[in-house]
Amino acid sequence: MAETDANKPKKKRDKIKPAEPKTVAEAKKRETQPGYWQLTDDEVLLRSPEPEDEYKTSDSWRVFRILGEFVGGFDDLATITRGVTIFGSARTHEGTEMYEAARETARLLADAGFEIITGGGPGIMEAANRGAFEAGKVSVGCNIELPFEQIPNPYQTKSLSFKYFFVRKTMFIKYSNAYLIFPGGFGTMDELFEALTLIQTRKIRNFPVVLFGSQYWRGLLAWLTSTMLNEKNINPEDLGLIHLTDSPHDAVEFIIKICTTEKGLGLPKSP
C-alpha cells in the first residue's frame, strides 16, 4: 500500500557531514583537523590513564553515571517482554533488497506479537523500526552517543539514548527473546558473537540467533566450519546455535517456533 505524506513521520533535518576519506592519508589528515575527535563518555572511561591524566581521579565517580544509565534503561524497557532485536548495517539504503527484507521481517514479527528493538540509527535499523511502525506496533530504538552524532530514525515509538556501549548492549540482551542479524560491519559482528558467547557459556538461556542473507554469511560460516571447528575451538553443537535464511517468513516462523517451545511466550504459531 502506498504511503501518503500524512502517514509518514516527520524526519529530522539531515546535518551536513564531511565526505568520507578515500585513502589512509586522507583519514590521517582528517584526524588533525579541529573538531574531528569529539570525546565520548565511552572513550573517557575506557582509555588507560596517563601519569598526569585529569580523568584518572574521576573514574570511580563515573560509576554513578553508569548506574544511572542502567537504571534509566531498565525503567524505560520494563514493559518489553517479547522483544526481538534486529541488527545490520547503518549504511544500507532505502529501496535495496536487504532494507526491504528487514522492513518486511520486522512487520511480520510485530504482527505476530513481538516488540521490535534496534540501535535506532539509519540503514537496517531504520528499516526494522519502520516495519514495526507501519504495523502500528512497538518500535524501540536504543540510540548511542557517537563522535559524529547519530541521528535517530523517525520510526521509533520508544526512543532511548545511551552514552556507554556496554550499557546499551546489556539492554539488547536483557530484553530480547531472539536476535535477527542482517548483513553489517564490525558492530553487527560484535553483537552476533557476544550473543553466541553468552549462549555457549550458559550465561543466558539459548535463544534464536538468525542470520539473514546466505550469500553474505556463507564465507563466515564456511570459515567457522573449516577452521574454527576443525581446530576444535568450538564444538559441532555450537554451530547449531545459528539459523541461516533468505526468507522473512522463514525467519519469523523459526523465531516463533523456538520462542513458543523453549521460552513459552504463548505466541501464535504463524504470523
CATH class of the domain at 81-261: Alpha Beta
Which word captures the global form? globular
Determine the strand fraction and express it as a percent band.
5-15%
- Mean pLDDT across every amino acid position: 85
**What is the CA-CA span between the terminal residues?**
19 Å
CATH topology title of the domain at 81-261: Rossmann fold
Uncertain parts? none
Task: Explain what this protein looks like in three dimensions.
The protein is of the alpha/beta class. It has a domain at 81-261: Rossmann fold. Helices cover 43% and strands 12% of the residues. It contains 10 helices and 7 strands. The chain has helices at residues 24-31, 41-46, 59-76, 97-111, 124-134, 165-174, 186-200, 214-229, 236-239, 248-261; strands at residues 83-87, 115-118, 139-144, 158-162, 178-181, 209-212, 242-245. The chain has a 7-stranded parallel sheet with strand order 4-3-2-1-5-6-7, with helices on both faces. It is globular and about 55 Å long. It starts with 23 loop residues before the first helix and ends in a 10-residue tail after the last helix. The mean pLDDT is 85.
